[in-house]
Amino acid sequence: MDEFVPPDFEVPLALETSEFVLEPLGPEHNEQDYDAWTSSMEHIAATPGWSDGSWPREMTPDENRADLQRHADDFRNRTGFTYTVLDPASRDVIGCVYIYPLPDSDYDARALSWVRESHAEWDVPLWRAVEEWLESDWPFGSVEYAPRA
After folding, report:
1. Residues 55, 60, 65: CA angle, nearest 5 degrees
2. How far is CA 90 from CA 43, 46, 93, in A?
3. How far is 30 from 130, CA to CA, in rounded Å?
4. In 4-143, which residue ranges form alpha helices assigned H by DSSP?
5. What is the model's pTM?
6. What is the pLDDT of residues 102-131, one digit of tens each?
7. C-alpha span between 59 and 64 (Å, rounded)
């Protein structure tokens, strides 16, 4: 497989706005991440881009930790980039953003995001901010990212 991002590309380690902060997702976020998505499974499944039904699915906290480790390994290996979305004041996990290759496609990458149901009003602002970030700070010519209304 070709490299997902060029070797000299400096992968952004954060995106900060007044509404949220993105930082690389890892096992250290397990407890808050698990609470965020398990409290919002129907909401996430109804979020644009998540209609294939493969996630969210029931998992134990240990399975979630392993999944977060896989995402952290992908980030370290530059094969995919997952960010946790944090409330800037409380540092509570309110969602996630995933940036991965989209094989056999005309797109260079696919982005997905979700926010917990209690922060549903942040879905569109998050989508807008990530869409702009992908255009301005990432090396992709085209990204599939389910539009919001």
Report:
1. 85
2. 22, 26, 9
3. 23
4. 30-38, 41-45, 61-77, 123-137
5. 0.94
6. 888 999 999 999 999 999 999 999 999 999
7. 6
